[in-house]
Write a structure and sequence with these properties.
Layout lengths: L5 E12 L2 E13 L3 E5 L6 H8 L8 E3 L2 E4 L2 E2 L5 H7 L4 E4 L3 H4 L6 H11 L5 H14 L5 H5 L8 H13 L5 E5 L7 H18 L2 E6 L2 H7 L2 E6 L2 E7 L9 H8 L27
Parallel strand pairs: 3-9, 3-10, 7-8, 8-9
Antiparallel strand pairs: 1-2, 1-4, 1-5, 5-6, 10-11
Helix pairs in contact: 4-5, 4-7, 5-7, 7-8
């Protein structure tokens, strides 16, 4: 069996509270090669916390512990902050859900993509400019020269997301963490963005962690899925089997989706069992 690109074992994240420390993430374990791993669950389930913990982007007050958090040959738990700065963006990239808040409003599109290249030492400035323009074409921007000179506020939602994908992928990272990258987009644009993300990740041979609320989307797009609730993994299964999940929480999430073939007066609301958070993870 080949070694995974990312190996996480018993990852726990806790924050200080009046009771000592409160766990936001509890004993999360998974492995990822060059495939697409979906992480689904309700808001507050710990999906984004897991992604940020891998990149060590949580607030200083967060206490991160794990038996193992290995990225290739790199121990992410013990790596220095200087080493992490070279890893973030260069080897592990994160695509956020709203480019309006992720892009610098004071810099043009081209200057931000060039900056991503230069920070991670991707060639000379001229080479970085050429690479930035090529990446704008790769994310299917029709008029890359015009868009390169625009500021973030001049971009539509879909265009901004393409620019963010270009900026994150231009250093050719080995792992991409996409945190709700299409939640602010309409259905048509969402499909285009996912096609572009899939195309670029495949072309670069990268692994992908796709964080989302959208179960049907994850079921169709990813290879495997982690279902999270209360900071724990409730179930892990192949994405194609998401609709036939067995854990009562995943079943409840599936049942809460509005059916497309009929009208319903009231949507199902998941009911919770406190025992789920006491059980050993699968």
């Amino acid at each position: 069996m080949t070694e995974p690109m990312l190996d996480v074992r018993n990852l726990t994240v806790a924050y200080p509270s009046h009771q000592g420390y409160t766990e936001a993430l509890r004993r999360v374990s998974f492995r990822l090669g060059r495939g697409k791993l979906g992480i689904v669950g309700e808001s507050g389930s710990g999906k984004s916390t897991a992604g940020r913990a891998i990149m060590r982007l949580l607030p200083p007050k967060a206490r991160i512990t794990a038996d193992r958090m290995q990225f290739g040959e790199i121990d992410l738990l013990t790596a220095s902050e200087k080493r992490m700065r070279s890893i973030r963006g260069g080897q592990i990239a994160m695509i956020l859900q709203d480019p309006r808040y992720a892009l610098n409003p004071l810099k043009t599109v081209l200057s931000q993509i060039i900056e991503a290249c230069r920070i991670h030492k991707v060639g000379t400035r001229a080479e970085a400019r050429d690479r930035a323009m090529a990446m704008l074409e790769d994310v299917h921007i029709r008029d890359p020269r015009r868009v390169a000179g625009l500021y973030p506020h001049e971009l539509s939602g879909g265009m901004g997301q393409r620019v963010m994908i270009a900026m994150m992928l231009v250093p050719s990272p080995r792992l991409v963490i996409a945190d709700e990258p299409t939640s602010a987009l309409d259905v048509t644009v969402r499909g285009q963005i996912l096609d572009i993300l899939d195309e670029r990740v495949e072309a670069q041979g990268a692994g992908l962690i796709f964080i989302s609320h959208d179960l049907p989307l994850v079921g169709a797009y990813c290879d495997d899925v982690l279902v999270m609730y209360g900071g724990q993994i409730m179930e892990r299964l192949a994405a194609r089997d998401l609709g036939a999940a067995q854990h009562p929480y995943t079943v409840a999430l599936n049942d809460s989706l509005p059916p497309l073939d009929r009208r319903v007066a009231v949507l199902q609301v998941p009911e919770y069992d406190s025992a789920w958070l006491q059980e050993d993870q699968p």
